Amino acid sequence: MSSRLPASQFSIKIFQKPKKDQLRECINYVNQLEISSENFVEFYRQCVKSFTPKIEFDTLYMGRFFEYKTFLPLKPSFEQKECKWLTIGIGGTSFAEKNFKEKYPGCLVYGIEPSPDQYENFTDYGTVIPYGVGKIITSLKYQE
Q1: H or E segment and range at residue 37
Q2: pTM above 0.90?
Q3: 113 close to 134: Cβ distance less than 8 angstroms
């Protein structure tokens, strides 16, 4: 079994390449090391932390069951008229969609929901698509 090294001893040459290539090089390097699983996790995290951009997500509270909807925020330069947001399963609340429309008023919002009793006041903020999401079972024979 290999000995455990502190992550501070782990170093990797910074290449003059795009960040995604640097991340790939770092992960490939870590994969080749003969180190303990604890070191592997530490070094892998260091690769991700060093070579990926810091991303701040927008998080909107849904208003029930302590659930949140999380998404990448739009760049300020992004044309909101090009923005389309899809909620899969309205689920009886449109609190997150209300907050989304307040933040991005030019975006179009769509919600997929098969049950009309779950629409709440979604149409105040977007368009309901009245379909379910699921698997089609082709082995079943339907009779007419």
Answers
A1: helix 37-51
A2: no
A3: no
